[in-house]
């Protein structure tokens, strides 16, 4: 049999299996059928709903299969042509958000029918002829549909463009197209191309600044709120998986040090969910002022009760909290720093940790997208419990599940472009941990954009202390 036909058959079987599994899991969870033409969001679209493990992975595997099939079947020139115009993807979404077009369609008296471009022209004072072309382009990606010639309405994903949604906040992150546009020049920059400095990135090229990202945004009050909102949206979108897929209750009885905890959002959410846990948010003074305000707003009384408190700590300096009474947590911190700096940070924790302390960091673990022509085509069947595990890739599906990992890999690429952030694999993390005189205990996958990397003092160090 022809190799390509074998690949086609394998991908078809994987797609069928993942869709059949997804459908069964919808029924088992008591969820309604999916429809692009729904006039309201589906429960699966709500960030506060956490899909069961098998449903979550079936959806990811279906997406991976569909895009692998598309790449297999599509005329390569047409694939290249799509990418030639991909810059208009974000531009057309900007039109939807910044002109009020999305909100106008969302307020249509009849959401099934939508609005004619002449009505949109009158409402928005924009040329209906031009809007037609923009909306037809967006319809090829499922954001809208044309219900009659010149009449458009939002598809279900389009509701994520409406005022107040997490998707809209994410899309309002400023300067992403401009930063991306300098990538090719940055990668070939004579002085910077091998640099890991946070002040030698596309950000400095675009804005003609010598400041690193976080210092630069402080000088731009017009940008800072949208930048912060975009970062917060990522955490909020995956908060249920974050709270569920690590055994946080196992940390009871000790104080959790939230190192570089910023505004304290994670500690506050964990304290809400697990009232017996206690947290100290450590950071620099400016961040701590915001953290104190967040605690008072989101969890009144927690500071006074000692459930969530704050204190100054530079994580490059000796850690002031030492011994078995503490666990140490880093969330979205270590990817900001080069290997040498991460080693310094972790060594400070290793010096302070007790033999019973856990050192946790919540980070993206990049998975090489290796494709093999073998694997378990029915791996979803093994995910029958409530404990989340990521599915092993079937034949001809990338190990990182390809298109299903695009949001995560896109974030890694953007962070690289913004401040030379690192995209580390499990092997990279293990090497860094061991260089810092720690031991990698386990990587906990989560239904989120990050995993929890759990470390401790190595057994040899534990014996020395004993």
Automatic annotation (TrEMBL):
| Molecular function per GO | O-methyltransferase activity
Q: Which GO terms describe its biological process?
A: methylation
Q: Does the keyword Iron-sulfur apply?
A: no
Q: Which SUPFAM superfamilies match?
A: S-adenosyl-L-methionine-dependent methyltransferases, Winged helix' DNA-binding domain
Q: Where is the O-methyltransferase C-terminal domain?
A: 211-365
Source organism, top-level taxon:
Eukaryota
Record keywords, A-Z: Methyltransferase, S-adenosyl-L-methionine, Transferase
Name recorded for this polypeptide: O-methyltransferase C-terminal domain-containing protein
